């Protein structure tokens, strides 16, 4: 079995050295080169034909976003961004994921050597996952949107659904990981403004989850927030788990509320999709719909099965449109899924089931 060829692009010699040592320590990975800026990287990509690129955002001569945009237009390939843990870094990283980057590694601002080394296992796993990923560029999504347009040039509107009260009586639960920020966006932007309350667990670090929720709020007809405390779940609202807390749901006199839990990691993650889905299975039962989107690993498969066994209707993103068909694939394998649906059809599928 051939080793995964990786090219590291970063203007910091220290980061290039540490990432090289981390990745080279795995027998399945071969660091075939490094580049201090995108112009050098462009030449090395042509010479070395890497399987995966790790790409810094702030670099001389050309920033990482500009380089990524050009790369995905001319030579699409799996890219893992190396992003600083700042509010600005989070926003730019989300833009990179929209451009087609598969995933990102958080680069600490201090004590680079020790802190990057602590995340060695995660870095290696993300590079290995990227090597198997289906790269979905912004152009791919725009092509689907063109296919979804009607004769007036407008995206076909998702049908409205009737709701009986502002406090949600139905709950939609969504879980995702690698490739999930863009997958969630593609679902949310297609949902009508009166859609039932929706709770989401996406594997994402603190800080990044805040920027993600703000971005979804701007793009969607729905009101999207990152809960900081217990909140009543309302129609037309979406609640995205913070990057360092589990999100759970429980019933109350008005309907349902979501709340945060600082318990231990589950399936190595906090927030965990299984934790969210388990609470929805127990508290909401047949009044819930569950959706598992693209992501590596198996988090969410067990919880989705519990939801189905308690009467919920369950959907998995299909393999062809998933960046990584790990979590959806494991859900299908364990019998947790009612329907497998292409990403761009999930919103309409949900609305159709709710109208039934």
Question: What does this 3D model show about the protein?
Answer:
This protein has 356 residues and is an alpha/beta fold. The protein folds into two domains: 4-133, Response regulator (Rossmann fold); 147-355, Rossmann fold (3-Layer(aba) Sandwich), CATH 3.40.50. The chain is built from 13 helices and 15 strands. Strands 8-10-7-6-13-14-15 form a seven-stranded parallel beta sheet, sandwiched between helices. The protein has a five-stranded parallel beta sheet with strand order 2-1-3-4-5, with helices on both faces. Strand 4, helix 4 and strand 5 form a beta-alpha-beta unit. Helix 1 runs parallel beside helix 5, helix 3 packs parallel to helix 4 and helix 4 crosses helix 9 (208-219). It is elongated, with a radius of gyration of 20 Å.
Topology, please?
Layout: E1 4-9, H1 13-24, E2 29-35, H2 38-48, E3 52-56, H3 64-74, E4 79-84, H4 87-99, E5 103-107, H5 112-118, H6 120-132, H7 138-147, E6 171-176, H8 180-188, E7 198-202, H9 208-219, E8 223-225, E9 231-232, E10 237-240, E11 246-251, E12 256-261, H10 273-283, E13 288-292, H11 301-309, E14 313-317, H12 327-333, E15 339-341, H13 346-355
Helix pairs in contact: 1-5, 3-4, 4-9, 10-11, 11-12
For the largest beta sheet, what order do the strands appear in spatially?
8-10-7-6-13-14-15
Number of helices: 13
Number of strands: 15
Tell me, briefly, the overall form: elongated
Name the beta content range. Answer: 15-25%
Mind telling me the CATH superfamily name of the largest domain?
Answer: Methylesterase CheB, C-terminal domain
| Helix/strand structural class | alpha/beta
Q: What is the level-2 CATH architecture name of the largest domain?
A: 3-Layer(aba) Sandwich
CATH topology of the largest domain: Rossmann fold
Mean pLDDT: 91
What ranges have pLDDT less than 50 throughout 5 or more consecutive residues?
149-157
Which sequence of SSEs, written as H and E, runs from N to C?
EHEHEHEHEHHHEHEHEEEEEHEHEHEH
CATH C-level category of the largest domain: Alpha Beta
Q: How many domains is the backbone divided into?
A: 2
Gyration radius, to the nearest Å?
20 Å
Helix amount, in percent? Answer: 25-40%
Largest sheet: 7 strands, parallel
Instruction: Give the end-to-end Cα distance, rounded to a whole number of Å.
Output: 49 Å
